[in-house]
Amino acid sequence: MIDVLVIGGGNAALCAALMAREAGASVMLLESAPREWRGGNSMHVRNLRCMHDAPQDVLVDAYPEEEFWQDLLKVTGGQTDEALARLVIRHSAGCRDWMRRHGVRFQPSLAGTLHLSRTNAFFMGGGKALVNAYYRSAEALGVQVRYRSPVASLELDGPRFRAAVLESGERIQARSCVLACGGFESNREWLREAWGRNERGEWPADNFLIRGTRFNQGTLLRFMQGAGADIIGDPSQSHCVAIDARAPLYDGGIVTRVDCVSLGVVLNREGQRFYDEGEDFWPKRYAIWGRLVAQQPGQVGFCIIDSKAVGRFMPPVFPGVKTDSLDALARALGLPEAAVLRTMADYNAACRGTDFDHTVLDGCHTEGLAPAKSHWARTIDKPPFYGYALRPGVTFTYLGLKTDASAAVHFGGQPSDNLFAAGEIMAGNVLGKGYTAGVGMSIGTAFGRIAGARAAGAALGKTTHADLA
């Protein structure tokens, strides 16, 4: 019998498998995707948010625990478990040496990734390189990896794990189990159920694009709901980003994100602005814009900039629609010309301040305009003009399994002694809503390593003291 069964194939699952194997357990990892699509959403990531009290290799200055916590508290609006959040934050300070031992390499922040050189460590080669490094290390250590192995259900004895049953009907027993198989963002029917119809009679979820893997159907999350596991989170909350409307339905990844929002204005299909584009630094606000667009008519938005913004943001994979006048841009985007010109004239007339500086919360703002633009408000009047049609791009959902600091899954308030969870399937314990760049990887790395060590201990009948620094 296998000691530890890990269900999932992304960062959290791999961290769990590596930790369990290092602790002396035999480990099998089940990845639902074929080998060429392995890694779940992790193959699209770029960086890890890291606490540090002084400059560290690729990180500059300092990013202390309290600042990290306040950033997380702000974006979640307090919908977070502080004890678990601080556990993640503290873990992020020391995990990189362990990651390096398994082949992960880091590099300084990329040009155009505003404000992240202090807070986030970037992976050399991105998420695909990280995933490949972990798989190479896992296989070298003797972890059994099986692809195209989706799990349909679990056999449980109360809160105790007994076996996993694959969609093929195969039954796999193990002494303990780690669930690291993601959320339900690729399950369109569940997204429809979560979002329902809006006041316009639309099904918003029908217009969502999925930034990551098509394999996160939420099968085991739904099973665990029915099995009596404690659930946390709002099914409509997710990491949801405004991405280019031309992006593919699945796996568009980070290059489909449109990062010029704070440098311009965003209109709905009626030609109206609907939110403060300059509320805060982009890494702290980019993940609210998918939900904002989802709440607009037709679940579509349009970001408009002029030539002054070019070169100040990471260019997306698709070029913007380019014209020499705002009225021509409105027509090219299919927007009501008169409404767009009126909105843009009102915005330009309201801009105040001459100290534009996109690297700080500058004094360029609007006056007498609703909604206001709090920072980086410059007139949009220098051709050529550029427009990007936007759709909601869901990365991962926040509904998940309730866990504690040991990563144990809870049933009726009591932790299981051999069933653990890590990554997106439990991220809602820390992320009730909102997001800040790189924190998903912080959660997955911390809880993946904890879950792997605890699962090994449960399987081997001993308390593990694996180094989680």
TrEMBL record:
In what residue span(s) does the FAD-dependent oxidoreductase 2 FAD-binding domain sit? 3-430
Q: Where are the transmembrane segments?
A: none
A Pfam family found in this protein is: FAD_binding_2
Q: Does the keyword Oxidoreductase apply?
A: yes
Coiled-coil ranges (or none): none
Which cofactor does the UniProt annotation name? FAD
> What is the name of the protein in this document?
FAD-dependent tricarballylate dehydrogenase TcuA
**Which UniProt keywords are given for this protein, alphabetically ordered?**
FAD, Flavoprotein, Oxidoreductase
- Which superkingdom is the protein from? Bacteria
